């Protein structure tokens, strides 16, 4: 009997998705790829993200040659029908998709065999068993991270963590060096565009011109890998040239250096071009060879084997009801200036700078995402479902499984503490300490009211006031909430915040 055709989704592009040794399809199974235009029509994606995904898919198809049938269709159902593998007589396998919508679609197809998920460290059943045994309903990343480290023998010396401690965050929170506009690090890997990129850009131009799709953001030269070869080159360059200083400045921000020492590997990881195990193992090898400090390597391992894996597992463990969580009852719509990535409309230098980074590249690192973009949404009470959708659409590494826990749980505290112990927001003092963004700003991080009032400082206190009853019962927020009683200008602050409304700060 001939092997079943194997369907590759656009985020399943690495060799491990076709490897039978790791639960993939038969070694010589024919491959199907479907480029469905409806995906781009449903949402207003970032132009650079659409380019990246289509370029990656088309490059993978070119690599597979005669083994693949690449179908361009309106929908996935149309593509399956055109390929002759859908319906009652279809013979198809697919690796477990990364979204609930895609899983529901393939589950509903007749005679589709769903193979194990690839591109992650643990099967869902293992995570479920750990969650049931250890933490019940309130799951915390730190305990999970230690369990993964032990299970995969990552940065371990026997039964103990390398260096004698699990968590080196205290070494990884340095502010940026003062007086330097950049970290002066070697540049990250930069891919070269080719004729496939030209074809993708031509198609996107035509579809947009014809009114078939609409994008936000800019599609400049491609910044992220779209092939396995490019992804491995990016990984090698990060580990060899940039990993050393990654740790201590992991949480810092510089206006003139948005990349700093970050790896930029989230996009190729989430396209399936890299496997997380190879990334963390290569970083650990660098430490054991004396080529990178432990705090940097531990920070990188924590991002991938800890946070990334944790978010993937929680996406499935929490269930679809998690999407509608809104513990703080935030319902305000996202303002147009934010939806359109209109950085020029914004006076606050931190927000304008970060919004411009998203507009121009479809990427910022985790601190601008959480403490500038997410914090603005939280302080202003924007609908968490709309915020989740915005992050999904506007970031090149954004997928449903990535953004749902990150936004609902971490950024917007919409799950009421099921994932994190407190809301993550702050006044301007934090941004001032961890960046060079405040000095040239029209606002002052210390001012709560008046024409120079920092919208993050004022917004922080307005947020605490709005949720005073709820947050006073949180042991990590109770002291901050009590600080409201010391503010003699609270009424003025609340009035000014209300008067601003949804205007760009």
Radius of gyration: 23 Å
Number of strands: 7
SSE order = EEHHEHEHEHHEEHHHHHHHHHHHHHHH
Rough outline: globular
Q: What profile does the largest beta sheet have? A: 5 strands, parallel
Describe the structure.
There is one protein chain. By secondary structure, this protein is mainly alpha-helical. Helix content is 46%, strand content 6%. The protein contains 21 helices and seven strands. The strands form two sheets. Strands 3-2-1-4-5 form a five-stranded parallel sheet, sandwiched between helices. Strands 6-7 form a two-stranded antiparallel ribbon.
Give keywords.
46% helix; 21 helices; 505 residues; five-stranded parallel β-sheet; mainly alpha; globular
Topology:
Elements: E1 5-8, E2 31-36, H1 37-42, H2 47-64, E3 68-73, H3 76-83, E4 92-95, H4 100-108, E5 112-115, H5 124-134, H6 141-152, E6 156-157, E7 160-161, H7 195-209, H8 228-242, H9 266-270, H10 276-288, H11 294-318, H12 336-339, H13 349-361, H14 366-380, H15 384-394, H16 400-411, H17 428-433, H18 455-466, H19 468-472, H20 478-482, H21 490-500
Parallel strand pairs: 1-2, 1-4, 2-3, 4-5
Antiparallel strand pairs: 6-7
